């Protein structure tokens, strides 16, 4: 077992990283503002499910493929960028009534959950980040490295749940007030679409 000091240092670093503006927390923010706090929480759970995949990939060495293979990295990042463009297209086309209906319980939370998973696992930078970040806190003398990687990944997910959950609650509250106006609803859709396009461009042009 890792020393408690190491665990706390890693947890604090993870919290700071979760607070730093990035595709995932921006995604939670926009979805919460558009569809409400519960939608943001669902997206956050989807993103954290993706983090489980990345943690496992690092623990079992799969992430090394994306670090060493230019082709694998390129394919995955363009798949992720294409999905973000698809989300942007849907946001630009959505009318104000679509947002109002989502407040009445018609929103498909399963779809939002899947969006969160896809958003996270199609970003190869996350696996490479985990591959570079997690081993810094591991200690071969403290037991199996695979178990330590999974444990550290779990701590990172806890930090993500706390920070992204807070973002979802705050953005959802603000979004409820903004959605009193149909014009503001349309603006929120356009902003979300623009954010998705920006994230797609950033992902498509990112380097290893």
Short structural summary:
This protein is mainly α. The chain is 84% helix and 0% strand.
Helical stretch count? 10
Q: Compute the average pLDDT.
A: 80
Low-confidence stretches: 97-105
Principal-axes shape call: globular
Described by strand count, sense and barrel closure, the largest sheet is: none
What helical percentage do the residues reach? over 70%
What is the H/E order?
Answer: HHHHHHHHHH
Total individual domains: 1
Sheet/helix structural class? mainly alpha
Radius of gyration: 18 Å
Q: Report strand %.
A: under 5%
Distance, first to last CA: 32 Å
Total count of strands: 0
Secondary-structure topology with pairs:
Elements: H1 4-19, H2 23-35, H3 37-59, H4 63-68, H5 70-93, H6 96-106, H7 109-121, H8 124-133, H9 145-178, H10 182-205
Protein architecture, described:
The protein has 208 residues and is mostly helical. It has one domain. Helix content is 84%, strand content 0%. The protein has helices at residues 4-19, 23-35, 37-59, 63-68, 70-93, 96-106, 109-121, 124-133, 145-178, 182-205. Helix 2 (23-35) packs antiparallel against helix 10 and helix 3 packs across helix 8.
């Amino acid at each position: 077992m890792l020393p408690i000091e190491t665990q706390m240092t890693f947890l604090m670093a993870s919290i700071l990283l979760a607070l730093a503006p990035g595709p995932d927390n921006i995604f939670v923010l926009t979805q919460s503002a558009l569809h409400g706090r519960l939608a943001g929480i669902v997206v956050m759970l989807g993103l954290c499910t993706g983090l489980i995949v990345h943690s496992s990939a690092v623990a079992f060495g799969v992430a090394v493929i994306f670090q060493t293979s230019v082709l694998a990295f390129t394919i995955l990042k363009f798949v992720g960028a294409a999905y973000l463009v698809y989300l942007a297209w849907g946001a630009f086309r959505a009318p104000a009534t679509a947002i109002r209906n989502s407040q009445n319980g018609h929103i498909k939370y399963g779809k939002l959950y899947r969006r969160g998973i896809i958003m996270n696992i199609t970003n190869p930078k996350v696996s490479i980040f985990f591959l570079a970040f997690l081993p810094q806190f591991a200690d071969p003398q403290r037991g199996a490295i695979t178990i330590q990687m999974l444990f550290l990944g779990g701590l990172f997910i806890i930090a993500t749940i706390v920070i992204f959950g807070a973002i979802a609650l705050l953005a959802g509250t603000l979004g409820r007030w903004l959605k009193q106006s149909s014009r503001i609803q349309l603006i929120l859709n356009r902003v979300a679409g623009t954010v998705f396009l920006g994230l797609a461009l950033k992902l498509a042009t990112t380097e290893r």
